[in-house]
Specification:
14 helices; 2 domains; globular; alpha/beta; four-stranded parallel sheet; Rossmann fold; 40% helix; six-stranded parallel sheet; 14 strands; disordered C terminus
Length: 395
């Protein structure tokens, strides 16, 4: 498997790759992951470093990618030594090691598309270059309808829809962080604090509106970013009621979900699924999220969590106040969330991914045989929508 983003900094795609790899390993498969990472970074036994990443603006965020001669050499060495049955590349259109791996590999390639974004000039200009790599992909997976739509509109082709996964047991039970709730007055946030699209400024605005009338209201913030910048957006009189944890471990992240009465995901755009929602749901948290399509879908149009108008601090404040004042509603949403998140557990999602692997390996073998017998290219049997065979790409 190839992760395009650095292993050194937590993120949705990196977490997806990590959890899928570990679910497959637990099921008895041999898995190797290639990802950008500092050479001295502590890595799991199944991760190989593709070299140090460089931060570049991408899709309204700052992505840490690896692309160049050093990375290309490591990609080729990893592929040569691995002799893998399947190469699974995440976000192959991102200018990082996944794209390099597509160019270098021969054999069945599966790609997972995570991102949702509007057509960009950069994407249009790079389309001919990307096509040389993307045409080698045998099976395509999209983690959401939004990601699937992005793939169809920007790059053509279709994809099997397999959602993001979450290790439900990791978040189901945890002790609250010392000094925090739930106590009827804690709102929580987890995400990159310095990325506007994650919506923290909207939440801070809403908190500033609510706090003067609610002396016990507190805000717990976790994620990469500058704590001083966050506190600077809050009136001095309220800063002692805001806890900024910064980057947290997986264990403390689970504890954070259990430390709040309302978990808020105020993201404004650019989300195709919402892994933080799934994690919070697995913890049984009461979720309040912006009504972007991806979040609305994960929350079942409000059945497993409340929604507010995207980007509207007033709407967020009103919905948060209603939840804080209604313990019965919070309990009901928590129960619904625990039920709804079961379909995203990796025990289910990983099996669906393996079915795609089995399809592309079986059809690729048929394609090789046909080409060797001089019959040219051709699909070997029926395959699921979004999965196609390219016999000429199999060594």
């Amino acid at each position: 498997m190839v992760c395009p983003y650095t292993w050194d900094v937590p993120g949705g795609v990196m977490a997806h790759v990590r959890d899928l790899a570990e679910a497959l390993i637990a099921d008895g498969h041999h898995v190797s992951v290639l990802a950008p990472a500092s050479d001295d970074a502590p890595l799991p036994f199944y991760v190989t470093s593709a070299g140090r990443a460089v931060a570049v603006p991408y899709n309204g965020s700052v992505a840490r990618l690896a692309f160049g001669f050093l990375s290309a050499n490591r990609v080729r060495k990893w592929l040569r030594e691995g002799r893998f049955d399947v190469l699974h590349v995440h976000e192959p259109a991102v200018p990082s090691v996944g794209l390099l791996a597509c160019w270098a590999a021969r054999g069945p390639i599966v790609a997972t598309f995570h991102a949702s974004f509007q057509r960009s000039r950069a994407m249009s200009v790079s389309a001919p270059v990307l096509h040389t790599a993307l045409e080698k992909i045998s099976g395509r997976i999209a983690v959401s309808d939004a990601a699937r739509k992005t793939l169809v509109e920007h790059m053509g082709g279709d994809a099997v829809l397999i959602p993001n996964g979450v290790t439900v047991s990791r978040y189901a039970e945890a002790e609250p962080l010392p000094g925090w709730g739930p106590d009827g007055g804690v709102i929580g946030f987890l995400g990159r604090m310095d990325e506007p699209r994650k919506g923290l400024p909207v939440l801070l605005d809403a908190f500033t509106r609510l706090a003067p009338e609610r002396p016990g209201l507190r805000l717990l913030v976790a994620g990469p970013g500058d704590a001083d910048d966050v506190l600077a957006k809050v009136p001095v009189s309220l800063r002692e009621r805001v806890g900024v944890l910064g980057l947290v471990s997986e264990e403390d992240k689970a504890r954070a979900y259990h430390s709040v009465d309302v978990f808020c995901a105020p993201n404004t755009h650019g989300e195709s699924f919402g892994i933080v929602l799934a994690e919070a749901m697995a913890a049984g948290a009461t979720v309040l999220a912006s009504d972007i399509p991806a979040f609305r879908r994960v929350l079942g149009d409000g059945q497993a969590g409340a929604l507010f108008e995207t980007g509207d601090a007033g709407s967020l404040a009103r919905e948060a106040a209603a939840l804080l004042d209604d313990p019965a509603c919070r309990a009901n949403l928590s129960a619904e969330a625990r039920l709804a998140v079961r379909k995203y557990d990796w025990s289910t999602v990983a099996r669906d991914v393996v079915r795609v692997y089995e399809t592309v390996t079986s059809t690729a073998a048929g394609g090789v045989e046909e080409e060797q017998q001089g019959r040219g290219r051709g699909e070997a049997g029926r395959v699921p929508e979004g999965v196609r065979a390219h016999g000429s790409e199999v060594s």
